[in-house]
Amino acid sequence: MNTLKVVDYIVKWLKDYAENSKMNGFVIGVSGGIDSAVSSMLCAKTGFPVICIEMPIHQAENQISRAKEHIENLKKRFPNVRSTFFDLTNVFDTFKNQDIWNNDNPQLNISLANTRARLRMTTLYYFAGLNNYLVAGTGNKVEDFGIGFYTKYGDGGVDLSPIADLLKSQVYAIGKFLEVPKSILTAAPTDGLFGDHRTDEDQIGASYDELEWAMRMNDLKKSSQDFVGREKFVFDLFLKLNNTNKHKMIPIPICKIPKNILN
């Protein structure tokens, strides 16, 4: 990958999109992870105004500190960047405490995790609406088009996705090139949606390097029978997640009514 050319291409793409859509800038959620760090820096490099928003919900302290470190570094380097800290913990707790019926529901934790992401999406669009800004996404190619590792209408609810055609390893390469803080580059990836220290690998069952390999093998039309051991496990896991989360990666199904019964 020609990192400089990729960075320049994405920055120009962001600028052109904002200009053509007559929007004034970008809003982006910053979590303390590599994807949001790279995405926010690419937005900053456009010269358009950028609002970086921290939205903790019972967040681990190290995630908050990494986000603060990145944002402060970003504001020092780019005068077009400003930030706000919008603690959603009380909002989330109020929402959660309204439901007295589902405490024993086995889907409760995952539903609450998705609720966190959707509260953040709502907050981003609130600030976007106030300023006529675009909401910039932070999903990478493995998450968005490989295994669907994001929340529908949560972190998947954005106006544009600057790094969604980049593998996780490529995002890290750009992060190093852009001098993202070392604390972020070395931190284990996590979506931070469960209020604990579980990593993405803990949730998924495979590392991003393994998932990238599985994506390549799938593109090469390999089948499960081509592999054994750990490789077979990872490949089967990738296929399972890709199939299960396909509904996130395709347009919303529309019931098309035949014209002969409409007229």
Task: Find the CATH superfamily of the largest domain.
Answer: HUPs
* Model regions low in confidence, pLDDT < 50 over at least 5 residues: none
The CATH C-level class name of the largest domain:
Alpha Beta
Task: Examine the secondary-structure arrangement and name the CATH architecture of the largest domain.
Answer: 3-Layer(aba) Sandwich
On the 0-100 scale, what is the average pLDDT?
92
What is the overall number of helices?
A: 13
The total number of structural domains is: 2
Largest sheet: 4 strands, parallel
| Gyration radius over CA | 19 Å
The percent range for helix content is 40-55%
Task: Characterise this structure.
By secondary structure, the protein is of the alpha/beta class. It has 2 domains: 3-196, Rossmann fold, CATH 3.40.50; 205-248. Helices cover 54% and strands 6% of the residues. The protein contains 13 helices and 4 strands. The chain has helices at 3-20, 34-44, 61-77, 89-98, 108-131, 141-147, 168-177, 182-185, 200-204, 208-219, 229-244, 246-249, 259-262; strands spanning 26-29, 50-54, 81-85, 134-135. The protein has a 4-stranded parallel sheet with strand order 3-2-1-4, sandwiched between helices. Strand 2, helix 3 and strand 3 (81-85) form a beta-alpha-beta unit. Helix 2 packs parallel to helix 3 (61-77), helix 2 (34-44) packs across helix 7 (168-177) and helix 10 (208-219) crosses helix 11. The longest helix is centred in the middle third of the chain and has 24 residues, at 108-131. The radius of gyration is 19 Å and the shape is globular. The N and C termini lie far apart (54 Å). The model has no long low-confidence stretch (mean pLDDT 92).
